[in-house]
Each structure stands twice: as C-alpha cells, then as structure tokens.
User: What shape does this take?
Amino acid sequence: PGEWCFFGGKLESGKNPEETLKEIIKNKAGINVSIGELFKKYSFEIKSQNEIINCTDYVYVCKFNGSISDIKINEGAGFVFLDKSELTSHLLTEHSLELLKEYFGIK
Assistant: This one.
C-alpha cells in the first residue's frame, strides 16, 4: 500500500505469457495493448507462512495507441506516467524501481 508498482497476474498452465499479459492489462486497466519484446524473464521465491512458492516474472515492453481517457483502472488506486528523471521522486516498490532503472540504463 502507498507504493506504485506494475500490474501482475498468474500464468495458468498451458497459456502463453503474451496472451495472458493482454488479458491482465485488459482486466486491470480496460485497454488493449500490443505486446513487444520480452525485456526480462527471471525467477524468484515468495516465502509465505508454511511454504516457498517458486515464481517467474515475464516483463514485456508494450505499446498502447489509445487515449489516456481510455484507461479505466479496476485494481489499485490509479496510475502515473513518469519520465526517467522522475523515478526516484515517486514512491515505487523496490522491485519496480530496479526494473525501470535497468530498462532506462540508470545506475
């Protein structure tokens, strides 16, 4: 709570990441996007009370050709557009900030 982050979702068995991403963005933001290149794929663990869940994140570059007024957030408090010079002036999750810095080549 109180931090900006990327949308996330679960890749169901037998589905591909690109189609799943389109569905997630449509459900959570009400928009259609074109899926571009895979920026990063990495594995990590989520530790809960009694188990460790192995996860894989797929991070894609997407293109949206609509208008800002087309965006209808169905989850979370809102959305923000940032210039790369503004990344550290907004409260982003550590994970989101790391990804954006890597994407923009910021040390």
Observations:
- The radius of gyration is 15 Å.
- Strands lie at 34-47, 52-63.
